[in-house]
Amino acid sequence: MIFVTVGNSNIGFERLIKAMDALAPKLPYEVIMQIGSSSYIPQNCEWFRYASYEAMMEYFKKADVIITHAGAGTILDILLLGKTPIVAPRLRKFKEHIDDHQLEIYKSLGTARAGNTSIRNKTSWAGNIGCP
């Protein structure tokens, strides 16, 4: 199962949700997305807006692949489970956050070699999660 999480920001992360929804039918995995306040509603996979911390941890444990926004707490929780996430930072230029602190977190992860896979476009997303 591929689990996608965008955190609990009141700003949507349409770029990630739309791209993963487009990829979902092509993947050999079930895709489940936590979409937060995103206005785009996925058509090709299971989704929900928010869940408790305990429920999110269960999704992380069950997932074969985790794709996450670059929220420090979320990344830390995933790493503590011994998993390496695919990290997609929310970017200010796309109005996904008020600043680029997630990009800075992402860059720090690359330096630490903790979760240094980025998602920049649909092609790299497909390659990162084993899409043909």
Automatic annotation (TrEMBL):
Keyword Hydrolase belongs to the record: no
Entry-linked Gene3D superfamilies: Glycogen Phosphorylase B (3.40.50.2000)
GO molecular function: hexosyltransferase activity
GO BP annotation list: dolichol-linked oligosaccharide biosynthetic process
Main location as per UniProt: endoplasmic reticulum
Places the protein is found: Endoplasmic reticulum
This protein's name: Beta-1,4-galactosyltransferase
